[in-house]
Amino acid sequence: MSQADVALYEAKGRGRNRLVSYESLQENAGGDDRDLYVRHFENVTRVLTERMTTLVTNMGRSLVEAARREANQDALTQLHNRRYFDARLSREVETAHKHGRALAIALVDLDHFHDVNAGFGYPSGDRCCAASPRSPATACA
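-> structure tokens emitted (141 positions)
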């Protein structure tokens, strides 16, 4: 098994679709097993380093994307917030100008929403704000 392991990591070190036999490695090493196992150590170290780099990079990317999403969305409603609006507005104005298109902006303000919170409690107000667009009436009932 150790010979197969040495050949496997040598093949990985050489790149994709490479066939390496332990016997050919021994011939190239001139019968010096010590050099062969040093090379095996280097190959294993290289493969593990590449895998760890990929893993850390992917985890970091996921964390940055999650932080960006959280910074641009309201936690309760999952709607984009003012920070997102400000960043996106300039891009949309530029795109509309570039293509010669009109741009419409709609803002929604809930008048007297404080009365819902005061009359029914903040948990009920939160349920109304977090209601799905498919069933808003059931959330506020």
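Residues 33-72 form the longest helix (40 residues).
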